[in-house]
């Protein structure tokens, strides 16, 4: 991280308007941050605590708050402050300059889209998402189609407005709202390279694992009471350094890390017939949570203190889940903790909880239809498919009606499996599109790539890092991550942050080396 | 309840401005209601779920939201709508007219006080309340004094502004904000009458109970695990008709009923050495909760749909806790449920959980220093004392420095016990004053009086009501309460609601008859 605390440079005295404009913005955005805090807690409550009968009232309440935040950002005096503070920009401290840039980013995104379009899109998305919950299990694409058409129609409008205001292609404008600075021109070559090398790697990995002992079956026959699993994952969060003084763990249907930096709310789900989803889930979400908890405290409440977008956020969760969490070192550390928490005195020494068995189960490669169940090596294929389809939807080369056919073709091409007649596990499998989340998917794979690159840099900077991990000592790694990433907030642009922390722009080399080592050579 | 759904009367056509002003206000207040929903959930979270380290950020976030609501209410167009809608008032439907009155009430309260005074008062109250948490256990009044002085100084300013705007005495203006329409002129004669009769009743009750078997001691020696108590009180809430599809029960330090009508959040505390606080607490809070859950659904989101102030709210909780909950009939119904939940096979038939034993413990009269631990008969004395002191503080006849002496004199006079040198259990015992809640205390006793009066009316209207209660059948009572009180929302003024539902203005007769019957005669 560059030095952001160096003394204020000599500067020309500010006029009164200039001096007040930045302060006015800082105070305004601190208020917005408070509103976002309350919004985040109400949204967390909706996903974890709220009784079902309250959902309509909650939806309306959250929409009132979001509408008000949008309205506040559109205030005339806010626009005036931005134009006045422009003249002042050169005289701000470096962190204030970055803060002003981030304020402007948030402001432009909000004011670019007319309020009636925001509301229409939000309504169409609510309808489509609610219908999707019922239509997906019924594998009913034909009733889903008109709803998704409407969502895409309105999202194209939103993307057009955003793109015009930000001077970029519509789909780039959507990407920009999730991972600032990473657009199609950056993403396409990386994904193209992976598209080329992955089939070979997957084939080699499957050939190799045929010779290995298959994961034992007996563990699947055991039952793991939720209370025992909860104790285990809380212990794992503690060991990983999650601060329960400023965060919680709860239960939900779809695992997430929410809340705010000062109050991080992780939620996961439990399956009584297998403990691995909860364990892997909590390691993943802890990566998100630690990032939030160690954002720069001195700037909290300001946009510059926020996490640097979805790609970097996913890189922190994936660094924890994949780079650390499935390594031989980590599994050696965690195996006795798992056995302690879940085993009985009779079976606690059994192979079911051994590091080797955990590793075999967590690194099994099998092409499959559903993204969230995919292994580390086939997972990128799912994202590449969604990226290609989203690109088509927003450059007009793909229509909503043609998604199922395009999906099936993509899956056959990428993984050799078909979704024909099975839209439930094809294009209807994710909540993202019905919810209007176009442009988010790439962050999962970009996050994997950066996680590999960043963890490689960490190993270079921290000799014997894997020995630390084998002992469950994460302090050195955390300090390094805090220095490189967490404590930076949004001070640097995404691309600059990537280069400063790893010495290179985002590439596929580290990820390729990582999966080759783990899946083809059976190392680490 | 009067008929509020009758057809719209013939009326002169509205001008465009008039027609839109009321609609604009209705739409505006629906938005405010959404913001209040989110505020209520974040405040509930703060009291039940939030990790301690997040308290500063949460305080700031809630303050940002509250400030914004205050700012919204002060908007110039809102004032314009009110002045235009005045001319339209006669042409609105009855419920809309009542809604307009309630909108104006909320608006006047908000705009009467300058924002900088609101913020200064809120800050002083935060400081005083935080200090109180430490100074009360230390019995340290001298360090508490300057903080409370500042709270009172600012609250006097607030009350002066409110009083000027509402054309009433400063203390009446504070009372008005909690129980609209019930001011000193209504309260003082009622409390004066009770001051006269209570000492005699307390004496007679204590004489009578000396002849009764004292409550058994063995129950206090038992342990009651929280999980068992929780199951018991959830069952009690279910039997009482609390709707868990639109509400929850959680754990907290200070029992409350929060959330919103569509999502009622009850929270209580548990003591492992006694189950009665949790049981009594949950019956009390269920009274609040049922009122909220059965407010008029057709108006929800509008001010007219809200509960009719603190006095009526407390009357519903006290009707449940005292009138119903400590009756012989209810205890006969609940005793086997308690034994089932808490007893072991060996002791479940024991006297510890018998209706008679529950009754002896719940109706024991003992003058004591701490309000929240007081029995039903001595409780009013605590409120009378606070009312008299609050009146003095706001008419200038009592200064903050003289509170301890005045408190001691009042307690000796009312209950024959002294708080000299014991401010911890004297004037420092409640959070209300450090938190700036002046004018709230009377609602507890007004609620007791109205609960007795209302329950008397219910018994008159519903023959064999006590037989229903003995069988745990609350439907008829609930329907009657819904018709008389709950479904009315804020359609009627407090005084009109009291008269319409009971046929008389608020008095002490029903309460006197009730406590005489239960405590002096040992009936019901």
Descriptors:
2 domains; disordered N terminus; homodimer; Neurolysin, domain 3; 3 strands; mainly alpha
Briefly summarize what is shown:
The structure is a homodimer of 524-residue chains. By secondary structure, chain A is mainly alpha-helical.
Structure report:
Two copies of one chain form a homodimer. With 524 residues, chain A is mainly alpha-helical. The radius of gyration of chain A is 24 Å and the shape is globular. A three-stranded mixed beta sheet of chain A has the order 1-3-2. Chain A is built from 21 helices and three strands. Chain A folds into two domains: 16-178, no CATH class; 179-225 and 270-524, Neurolysin, domain 3. The A-B interface holds A 30-31, 33-35, 37-39, 41-42, 45, 49-54, 56-58, 60-65, 67-68, 72, 243-248, 260, 262-263, 300-301 and B 30-31, 33-35, 37-39, 41-42, 45, 49-54, 56-58, 60-65, 67-68, 72, 243-248, 260, 262-263, 300-301.
């Amino acid at each position: 991280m560059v030095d952001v605390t160096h003394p204020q440079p000599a500067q020309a005295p500010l006029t009164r308007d200039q001096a007040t404009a930045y302060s006015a913005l800082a105070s305004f955005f601190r208020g917005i941050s408070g509103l976002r805090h309350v919004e985040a807690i109400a949204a967390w409550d909706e996903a974890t605590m709220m009784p079902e009968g309250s959902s309509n009232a909650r939806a309306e309440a959250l929409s009132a708050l979001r509408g008000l935040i949008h309205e506040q950002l559109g205030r005339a005096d806010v626009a005036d402050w931005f134009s006045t503070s422009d003249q002042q920009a050169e005289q701000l401290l470096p962190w204030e300059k970055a803060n002003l840039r981030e304020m402007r980013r948030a402001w432009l995104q909000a004011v670019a889209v007319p309020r009636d379009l925001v509301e229409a899109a939000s309504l169409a998305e609510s309808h489509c998402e609610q219908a999707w919950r019922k239509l997906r299990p019924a594998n009913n694409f034909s009733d889903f189609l008109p709803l998704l058409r409407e969502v895409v129609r309105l999202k194209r409008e939103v993307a057009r407005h955003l793109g015009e205001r930000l001077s970029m292609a519509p789909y780039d404008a959507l990407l920009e709202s999730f991972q600032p600075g990473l657009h199609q021109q950056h993403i396409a070559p990386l994904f193209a390279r992976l598209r080329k090398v992955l089939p070979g790697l997957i084939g080699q990995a499957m050939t190799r694992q045929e010779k290995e002992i298959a994961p034992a079956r007996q563990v699947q026959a055991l039952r793991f009471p939720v209370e025992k699993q909860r104790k285990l994952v809380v212990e794992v969060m503690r060991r990983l350094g999650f601060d329960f003084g400023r965060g919680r763990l709860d239960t939900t249907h779809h695992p997430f890390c929410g809340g705010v930096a000062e109050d991080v709310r992780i939620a996961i789900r439990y399956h009584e017939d297998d403990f691995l989803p909860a364990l892997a889930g909590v390691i993943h979400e802890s990566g998100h949570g630690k990032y939030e908890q160690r954002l720069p405290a001195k700037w909290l409440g300001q946009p510059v203190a926020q996490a640097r977008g979805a790609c970097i956020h996913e890189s922190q969760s994936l660094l924890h889940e994949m780079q650390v969490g499935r390594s031989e070192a980590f599994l050696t550390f965690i195996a006795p903790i798992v056995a302690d928490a879940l085993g009985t005195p009779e079976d606690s020494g059994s192979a079911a909880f051994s590091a080797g068995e955990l590793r075999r189960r967590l690194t099994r490669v099998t092409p499959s239809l559903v993204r969230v169940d995919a292994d580390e090596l086939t997972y990128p294929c799912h994202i590449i498919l969604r990226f290609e389809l989203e690109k088509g939807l927003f450059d007009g080369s793909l229509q909503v009606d043609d998604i199922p056919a395009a999906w099936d073709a993509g899956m056959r091409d990428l993984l050799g499996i078909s979704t024909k007649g099975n839209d439930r596990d094809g294009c209807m499998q994710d909540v993202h599109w019905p919810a209007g989340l176009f442009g988010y998917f790439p962050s999962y794979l970009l996050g994997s790539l950066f996680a590999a690159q960043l963890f490689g840099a960490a190993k270079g900077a921290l000799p014997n890092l894997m020995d630390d991990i084998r002992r469950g000592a994460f302090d050195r790694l955390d300090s390094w991550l805090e220095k490189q990433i967490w404590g930076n907030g949004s001070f640097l642009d995404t691309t600059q942050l990537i280069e400063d922390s790893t010495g290179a722009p985002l590439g596929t080399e580290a990820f390729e080396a990582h999966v080759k080592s783990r899946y083809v050579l059976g190392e680490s």
